[in-house]
Design a protein that fits this description.
The protein has about 160 residues and is of the alpha+beta class. It is built from three helices and ten strands. The strands form two sheets. Strands 1-2-3-4-7 form a five-stranded antiparallel β-sheet, with no helix packed on it. Strands 5, 6, 8, 9 and 10 form a five-stranded antiparallel β-sheet that branches. A hairpin with a 5-residue loop joins strand 8 and strand 9.
Length: about 160
C-alpha cells in the first residue's frame, strides 16, 4: 500500500510540473512584477503612515504644543486632504472642527485607548467636542475617485 501512495505522489508531482511548464509558456510572469509590487506596497505604506503635515495657521509652534488657544493643521497624502481647527474651550478641553475633501464614510479621533466618532456632514465637515488635551490621530475610511474604499490616517498631533 505504501508504494501506491508514493506512485500517486510522483504522478501528481509530474502533472504539476507539466502544468507549470504550460503556464510558463502561455502566460509567463512579467520580469519586473516583483519590483512593481514592492514599489506599489511601499507607496501605499508611505501614504498611510507618513501623511504630510503642514502647519497652516499658528503664531508659532507653541500653537501645536503650548498654551495657545487655537491651531489649524492640514494633512494630505496626495489624494485626500484634511483641514482641522483645534480650539480651546472654557472647561479646558478642546473642540476640533474639520473638513475632508473626499467622501468620508467613517471618521474617528483616537487618543491612546480612547476614541470618538464623528458623522461626516455636508461638504466633508465634521466636529469633535470636549476632547481632552493630549496627542491624537484622525482615522477615516474614504471613497476614492475610482469608487474604491481606502483608509486615511494622520500622523499624531497635539490636541
Amino acid at each position: 500500500m505504501m508504494s501506491n501512495h508514493l506512485e500517486d505522489h510522483a504522478a501528481d508531482a509530474a502533472l504539476f510540473a507539466r502544468l507549470r511548464h504550460v503556464w510558463e509558456e502561455v502566460d509567463p510572469v512579467p520580469a519586473d512584477l516583483v519590483d512593481r509590487m514592492v514599489a506599489a506596497v511601499a507607496v501605499e505604506d508611505l501614504s498611510r503612515e507618513y501623511a504630510l503635515l503642514t502647519l497652516v495657521e499658528a503664531p508659532s509652534l507653541a500653537a501645536v504644543r503650548g498654551e495657545a488657544d487655537t491651531a489649524t493643521l492640514q494633512f494630505s497624502d496626495g489624494s485626500t486632504s484634511v483641514l482641522i481647527h483645534v480650539t480651546a474651550t472654557e472647561d479646558g478641553s478642546r473642540r476640533i472642527d474639520g473638513w475632508v475633501d473626499a467622501a468620508a464614510l467613517a471618521i474617528r479621533l483616537s487618543q491612546g485607548a480612547r476614541e470618538w466618532t464623528a458623522d461626516p456632514g455636508e461638504h466633508g465637515r465634521f466636529a469633535f467636542g470636549s476632547v481632552p488635551r493630549g496627542v491624537g490621530r484622525l482615522r477615516m475610511v474614504v471613497k476614492a475617485a475610482d469608487g474604491q474604499l481606502r483608509d486615511f490616517q494622520t500622523p499624531q498631533f497635539e490636541v
